[in-house]
Design goal:
Belongs to the ATPase B chain family. This protein has one domain. Helices cover about 90% and strands about 0% of the residues. The protein is built from 3 helices and no strands. α1 crosses α2. It starts with a helix and ends with a helix. The mean pLDDT is about 85.
């Protein structure tokens, strides 16, 4: 503190006015330099600390930005890897779907063929049944006509011939 007081008082003692008109530019420059030196002496440490804090703050922000960049890069790489896996899975699913479609088409074709065969068999059975039913109906009608007519006398051979003609 004594040094500071000495430094402040020194310019006053050195450049005291002599009473004449003198342009004191040199003295004023020296006073300014002395004032600036004192000011620098007191403010240098806080300014230096503020400057170092600012540098470390910028470095910390830069580090956090770089960390975020690395994180986003790893997420991007992970997303690209998942996209590639999805493409492979999609190709596999497409192949599986094609195979299943072929299998289903073959199964439907076989079932259709079996169904057609069953329908044809059913049609034949129904046709035979209807033919027998019609035959029975015609025979029953013919017999009822013959037996209703009391005047008609037919022997058994003639009756069989008539029935055979009617049926065919």
């Amino acid at each position: 503190m004594k040094r500071v007081a000495f430094l402040i008082a020194l310019p006053l003692v050195i450049f005291a006015s002599e009473g004449e008109k003198n342009y004191d530019i040199v003295e004023r420059v020296l006073n300014f330099l002395l004032f600036f030196g004192i000011l620098l002496y007191f403010i240098a440490k806080p300014l230096k600390q503020m400057y170092l804090d600012r540098i470390s703050g910028i470095a910390n922000r830069l580090e956090s930005i770089q960390e975020k960049l690395r994180s986003s890069q790893s997420k991007r790489d992970e997303a690209l890897r998942r996209v590639e896996e999805a493409k492979v899975n999609a190709a596999s699913l497409i192949e599986t779907a094609k195979k299943e479609a072929i299998n289903i088409a073959e199964k439907v074709k076989k079932e259709s063929i079996n169904e057609i065969a069953n329908l044809e068999k059913s049609y034949k059975d129904q046709k035979e049944f209807e033919e027998r039913r019609v035959t029975k109906s015609v025979v029953a009608e013919l017999l009822s006509d013959l037996f209703d007519d009391k005047n008609l006398k037919i022997d058994q051979k003639e009756l069989i011939n008539i029935i055979l003609k009617k049926v065919s």
